[in-house]
Specification:
The chain is mainly alpha-helical and 113 residues long. Helices cover 69% and strands 0% of the residues.
Length: 113
């Protein structure tokens, strides 16, 4: 396996950012989990389009969208992924699902399950 320094650095950065999420969510106390999730979804679309534009990867985006059109199972997997992300982020709201508290250690004290 050939590891690139850039790939390792990006992986470490993403892990650090993921580890900071619990603190960030606590700072959003006036918002419930559904509102945080909705804002995340809403702002991810322009953020992704900005990243595509900055990296000049429009052809790659077009290829992915074309593949999703040719392979309907990929298109069906998208809502499933959205539901799974929603369940994961639901642990930061008052609406808890069984099993999600283990993914959100900061929420276990108020978990109703």
């Amino acid at each position: 396996m050939n590891l690139s320094g850039r790939g390792v650095a990006l992986s470490v950065c993403s892990s650090v950012l993921f580890a900071l999420i619990p603190g960030y969510v606590q700072q959003l106390a006036p918002l419930d989990g559904v509102q945080v999730f909705a804002q995340r979804v809403l702002w991810s679309i322009p953020a992704i389009l900005l990243l595509v534009a900055l990296s000049r990867q429009w052809a790659t985006l077009a290829a992915v969208l074309g593949r999703m059109r040719r392979e309907p199972l990929l298109l069906l997997a998208t809502p499933l992924a959205a539901v799974l992300i929603g369940v994961q982020w639901g642990c930061s709201s008052g609406r808890r699902w069984p099993g999600t508290c283990s993914m959100c250690p900061w929420a276990t004290s108020s978990c109703r399950w």
